[in-house]
Amino acid sequence: MCNCDNPYIPSPAKIIDIIKHTDIEWTFRVNADTSKTKPGQFYEISLPKFGESPISVSGIGEDFIDFTIRSVGRVTNEIFEYKIGDKLFIRGPYGNGFDLNEYIGKDLVIVVGGSALAPVRGIIQFVYNNPEKVKSFKLIAGFKSPKDVLFAKDLEEWGKKLDITLTVDGAEEGYKGNIGLVTKYIPELKFNDLSNVFQQLLLVLS
């Protein structure tokens, strides 16, 4: 990786894993310095001769960053041609990101639809690893259909310790999960303490 001080110069990042969620949404895990990276930030991912695209961080490890990418344009379509061992060019991070310390001791509610789950995945993982640090937690995640669900394994694992509602807009007959928009489940939200609404945090992304 480049140790350049210039934040506008992309650095090569080797792809070490690819997780295929749907036909058009994959997570690319790359080797990278994560010392300055926070959940909710984004990087510019560039490909020579194709251009660059801003992509949110969907996971952070000691020496890797996850980027969950939807194949919808010239740059992202080309990224989907890349394989493990190939190198992307990244520069960043950009944006303020999420300060996890702000959620300590609060009722935390996250309502997301579709790919918006990616940038808040780090928050959910933080709560999963440290459930005692929040007063309560609720995730409502919605997708178009069962085949469009992202991070299915994560959702299953998170559900073992956290309060999670997974819903889809529509499904074939016989589907046993929740069906309906995320707004259907917002009126069911319950907080531990309604005496001080400023101690409660509602984070909604669509």
Automatic annotation (TrEMBL):
Under PROSITE patterns, the record lists: FAD_FR
Which residues are in the FAD-binding FR-type domain? 8-100
Could you tell me one molecular function GO term of this UniProt entry? oxidoreductase activity
Q: Which InterPro entries match?
A: FAD-bd_FR_type, FNR_nucleotide-bd, OxRdtase_FAD/NAD-bd, PyrK_electron_transfer, Riboflavin_synthase-like_b-brl
Q: Which Pfam families match?
A: NAD_binding_1
Q: Which domain of life is it from?
A: Bacteria
Matches recorded under Gene3D superfamilies = Nucleotide-binding domain of ferredoxin-NADP reductase (FNR) module, Translation factors
PANTHER family for this protein: ANAEROBIC SULFITE REDUCTASE SUBUNIT B, DIHYDROOROTATE DEHYDROGENASE B (NAD(+)), ELECTRON TRANSFER SUBUNIT
Protein's recorded name: Anaerobic sulfite reductase subunit B
Source organism per entry reads Fusobacterium vincentii ATCC 49256
